[in-house]
Specification:
The chain contains 10 helices and 7 strands. The chain is an alpha/beta fold. It has a 7-stranded mixed beta sheet with strand order 5-6-4-1-2-3-7.
Length: 264
């Protein structure tokens, strides 16, 4: 894997709560700070839309000949069983599968088993609206750049513009960093702990004040780090590839691959 641009997106239905981060990944494997160079962070709600900012970053990278990876903090698919059951269901009829079978994806179960964190159920929670927004973003970006945003499955054979699903809480758990208690405005101290805890992997080359002030922007930086994990082949892979391609897959670092220092 050669040099790439990684764009981390903390997705939300309200653009003012969308965090964006851009980083240059040098394509190497190891623990050097230089391999992930964070170059810009922004929060939505400004004069430039999220699509416009993402397209500008991606187009500049493509002119340089760099592939672009979108690392999105949002589901990109729905439970396979949900679609199968609802396709033939009529109002008032009983439903045989359990709630977990209906509303939870296989990737959600794997994340919980390996990290202890359970992603929101895209089949039964308001996160479905965020998933819809994320898919709208990839469609709009592809239209603006006149290309298709492909789902990323193999870092060795990515298209020039690809997207993957990630989950910041899983990365934080594997790294031994606070996976909760950092979202509120008054929890800046924990955001500082998280950013400092990533220092062994991340070379910060821009003002990250926004990330310390807003968890949405910090999560977009975590998306970038998770995207680099994917590009290096450090993530848990699906056992059932066909099911993952139907439901989507959360790419998160294998617990034995942590390279940050553990913190309480």
């Amino acid at each position: 894997m050669g040099p790439s641009l990684i764009i981390g997106v903390d997705c939300a239905t309200d653009e003012a709560r969308v965090g964006l981060a851009a980083a240059r990944f040098d394509g190497s494997v190891g623990e050097s700070r230089e391999r992930i160079r964070l170059t810009e962070v922004v929060c939505g709600g400004g004069e430039e839309s999220i699509v416009e900012t993402t397209a500008r970053w991606a187009q500049a990278a493509r002119i340089e000949g760099l592939p672009v990876l979108l690392a999105l903090d949002a589901p990109l698919g729905w439970p396979a069983r949900l679609g199968e059951v609802l396709a033939g269901h009529r109002a008032g009829e009983p439903i045989e599968p359990t709630r977990d079978e209906m509303f939870r994806r296989e990737t959600d179960r794997v994340v919980r088993r390996m990290t202890g964190k359970l992603p929101l159920d895209v089949g039964a929670d308001r996160i479905a609206r965020t998933a819809h927004w994320a898919l709208g973003l990839t469609a709009a970006l592809g239209k603006k750049l006149q290309t298709r945003v492909e789902a990323g499955w193999d870092p060795k054979s990515l298209s020039s513009l690809a997207a993957i699903e990630i989950y910041p809480a899983a990365l934080l758990k594997v790294c031994g960093l606070p996976a909760s208690g950092y979202k509120r405005t008054d929890q800046r101290a924990n955001r500082e702990v998280i950013l400092d805890g990533l220092g062994a992997e991340l070379s910060i080359e821009c003002d990250v004040t926004l990330a310390l002030e807003q968890a949405d922007v910090l999560d977009s930086i975590l998306c970038v780090v998770a995207g680099a994990d994917f590009l290096q082949g450090r993530c848990v892979e699906p056992e059932d590839g066909a099911l993952a391609r139907k439901e989507g897959w959360i790419w998160f670092r294998r617990p034995d691959q942590d390279s940050t220092r553990t913190r309480a």
